[in-house]
Task: inverse folding
């Protein structure tokens, strides 16, 4: 059953999204009723065009809708057009203090400029960036960060706080609006989950532009995933947020995967196989941990949304399997029950289980993509 269908019969699943105005980042709509997009950022030297393009492609394969690329030097924008042409998704040029990098990136295909107008100098420089953005159809992302707040705001508030983050964002917004530019989105990020959530809530009540969510400097793969899931998940559950980036000390592809898992857990996006699995215990009829690890690795190529339950025993297994497209529960004597569309269907031996489940998922994905889900014959296709 789809997430939309579930909300009709279970209203406690419903998330009422904040109504923001929509902008375009290249060909990706952000805000309004558009799907919440998932972003990441490359960590290759931008001057190494080949390595940067290769990494972007890996991120796109993982599901990235938008990718940000740092542009700190003239060398980094010299061949930026080669990157934007090859990327396949909109590219955000990450600019900090050098406004000329923004002009160069805009002329070479950037779909969005990540720049804080107040950091680049005079009003004349802001006007130049706005002219370049308008001429090239670029959006702008204002990126306020608790770790780099303006000195006057730190002196005014004494420390990074929600009020300081919001005031900084509003100051930057005004600089763009004074130049009649409105195609912008805003982030007010902090590493502190409480600070970030409070700042986003306050900003969401003040402006109507799309909001880019993130818990910055979240940490490594495990710790950063937890922090990001709490912070970003909390905001999304409250209906706040139009695009997200999970900031991890890990490869950018991992950021994309975690981002989609957050959205999938809240029913906001569906992509690939959603695995429901038990933590394993002494009742398990097969090695659940190793089985799930193997299945997740072997099913990474599946983009079609579907659910798979992997339960080690028959205590909670049947109940969970009834809620998924394909399921397996552990049984005795090395034989396990396979469920299809929530109904018990057949048994499978331990030795054949992994290959069999992979074949079932691949066959169902192919049938769905071909528009033949109702004609899906798992027995015939899995045996091929």
Result:
């Amino acid at each position: 059953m789809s997430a939309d269908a579930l909300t009709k019969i279970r209203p406690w699943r419903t998330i009422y999204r904040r109504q923001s105005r929509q902008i375009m980042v290249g060909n990706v709509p952000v805000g309004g009723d558009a799907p919440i997009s998932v972003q990441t950022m490359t960590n290759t030297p931008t001057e190494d065009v080949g390595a940067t393009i290769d990494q972007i492609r890996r991120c796109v394969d993982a599901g990235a809708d938008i990718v940000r690329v740092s542009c700190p030097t003239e060398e980094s924008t010299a061949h930026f057009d080669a990157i934007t042409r090859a990327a396949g998704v909109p590219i955000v040029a990450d600019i900090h203090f050098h406004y000329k990098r923004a002009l160069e990136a805009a002329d070479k295909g950037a779909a969005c400029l990540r720049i804080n107008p107040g950091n680049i100098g005079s009003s004349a420089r802001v006007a130049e960036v706005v002219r370049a953005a308008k001429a090239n159809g670029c959006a702008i992302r204002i990126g306020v960060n608790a770790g780099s707040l303006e000195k006057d705001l730190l002196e005014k508030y004494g420390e990074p706080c929600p009020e300081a983050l919001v005031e900084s964002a509003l100051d930057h917004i005004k600089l763009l609006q004074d130049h009649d530019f409105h195609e912008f989105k805003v982030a007010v990020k902090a590493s502190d989950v409480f600070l970030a959530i409070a700042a986003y809530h306050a900003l969401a009540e003040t402006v109507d532009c799309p909001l880019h969510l993130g818990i910055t400097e979240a940490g490594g793969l495990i710790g950063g995933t937890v922090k990001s899931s709490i912070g970003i998940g909390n905001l999304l559950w409250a209906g706040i947020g139009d695009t997200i980036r999970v900031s991890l000390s890990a490869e950018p592809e991992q950021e994309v995967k975690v981002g989609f898992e957050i959205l999938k857990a809240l029913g906001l996006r569906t992509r690939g196989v959603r695995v429901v699995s038990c933590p394993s215990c002494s009742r398990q009829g097969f090695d659940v941990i190793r089985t799930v690890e193997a299945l997740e690795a072997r099913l990474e190529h599946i983009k079609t949304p579907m659910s798979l339950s992997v339960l080690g025993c028959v205590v909670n297994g049947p109940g969970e399997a009834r809620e998924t497209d394909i399921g397996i529960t552990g049984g005795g004597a090395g034989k396990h029950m396979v469920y299809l569309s929530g109904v018990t269907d057949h048994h499978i031996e331990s030795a054949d289980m992994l290959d069999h489940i992979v074949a079932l998922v691949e066959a169902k994905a192919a049938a769905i993509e071909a528009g033949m889900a109702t004609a899906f014959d798992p027995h015939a296709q899995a045996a091929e």
